Amino acid sequence: MDIRQGFESSPDDSAGSASQLLLSAKGITKSFSGVPALRDGRLQLRAGSIHALCGGNGAGKSTFLNIITGILRKDSGTIIYKGSERDFHAPKESLDAGISIITQELSPVREMTVAENLYLGHLPKRYGLVDWKELFRNATELLERLGFEINPRKKMREISLAQIQLVEIAKAINHRDVSILIMDEPTSALGEHETEVLFKSVRNLASLGKGIIYVSHRMTEIFTICDAYTVLRDGTFIEDGLIKDISRKHLVSKIIGRDYQDQFPEAKAEITAEPVLRVKNFSIAGKLTDINLEVHQGEVLGIYGLVGSGRSEFLNGLYGLDKKAGGEVLLNNRRIATRSPRESIRDGVALVTEDRKETGLVLTSSVKENMSLSSLPALSKLGFIRHQKEKGWTNDWVRKLRIKCASINLQVRFMSGGNQQKVVLARSLETEPRLLLLDEPTRGVDAGAKQEIYGFIERFVEQGNGVIMVSSEVDEVLGMSTRIIIFRRGRITAEMDNQNLTAADLLHAAS
């Protein structure tokens, strides 16, 4: 297969393609069991445009995109695609028409290689058999063209979450007839370097007359990569226009439906001289070497580094998910073993994982069951769960964290990303930790929910506790941290007081 397929302009792309209307959706509605999920979905996408589809969790974005791509059928409304009214009945129909989507929920075939995943459904064949030589050559050329540093011969289970995300992106981009590419939170698992590589590819596609619908809760990304925007709120169209004509404050206010306040707490909690945590010569074979740091009472310690720097591995090691090869960990001046999550919870350590759906939640279990999962010993008597106490705890956290759910018996898979993240946070806080480990705590969370989560973190440290926060968002690290530790290749390479630091300072130190 020619690597340029999928990147070249189609025959109907002309010099004036930037003004060509590829997609016009108006008045799209959809209800589930009589409950409206989308009341008035609208969007106009032009060729060559990178168009941000904005809205909070539960705004109707996913329902709208699922209708555009044929996953769901609309109840009413009109979709005009390339000048003709269309109503896609299945995802294959929209894909064959040239609409490709990269979903937020990754679905790799983990036992297959990267190359096989890239060409799944159209593997090159010779004499009726897979032509492995051509497959790996095509995959290598595609990944090199995109600037994605991934070994095509590795199995998907052997590569990182960030690399899986890049493979999914490459697979969607590689579709030979793509005219519209929908990207739903494409950088949620990516670091700064991978994000820049991705943006370069997206700009290249737009320059060839392709239309990009870009969904992200990261305002910095929207104002960096997008030229137009549409806002949905509560299933209804609110506003659209050009990015150059608005401010970040204006866009966030339209998304959350109220005046925008400063996103991060105005003042950091006062740090005492007493450390909550001391880590000495902490090592994990093949991952981390001689990590030494302290976290003080009332402190949010930020950890920043590129993907693969060892930042998540450090949190997993402290929590007992990865076995440490050496070193000492002291919590409140008492040595702890970090042998298992069970022991870590007992010792006063809690972890909010990087991927809530893969490792943070039991998606088919209820809000109540997920919240109480780490606190069952405290909720049980003679081996039986005290359900009234469990119910009371859950209702308290739903109220405290403003979790939106029809019932505490609702399965968490039916909740928005922001509310799912609050469930994970509630379960961690319910164990009454002294040290809270946060790995990408606002991944895939809207602006309103982010503000609430930041407030919870601030109140937690004000009580004399400590937090270690890993984040790929530079603004988040700078806005929340008192001190920042830089990880690179499994080592600490810098420690900075967060006084007048800039994004450039962090990126330079990390790279």
What can you see in these coordinates?
The protein is α/β, with parallel strands linked by helices and 511 residues long. It has three domains: 28-256, P-loop containing nucleotide triphosphate hydrolases (Rossmann fold, 3-Layer(aba) Sandwich); 273-348 and 435-445 and 465-511, P-loop containing nucleotide triphosphate hydrolases (Rossmann fold, 3-Layer(aba) Sandwich); 357-432, no CATH class. Helices cover 33% and strands 26% of the residues. It is built from 18 helices and 24 strands. The strands form six sheets. The protein has a six-stranded mixed β-sheet with strand order 6-9-10-3-11-12, sandwiched between helices. It has a six-stranded mixed β-sheet with strand order 18-21-22-15-23-24, with helices on both faces. Strands 2-1-4-5 form a four-stranded antiparallel β-sheet, covered by helices on one side. The longest helix has 16 residues, at 192-207. The protein is globular, with a radius of gyration of 24 Å. The model is unreliable at 1-18 (pLDDT under 50).
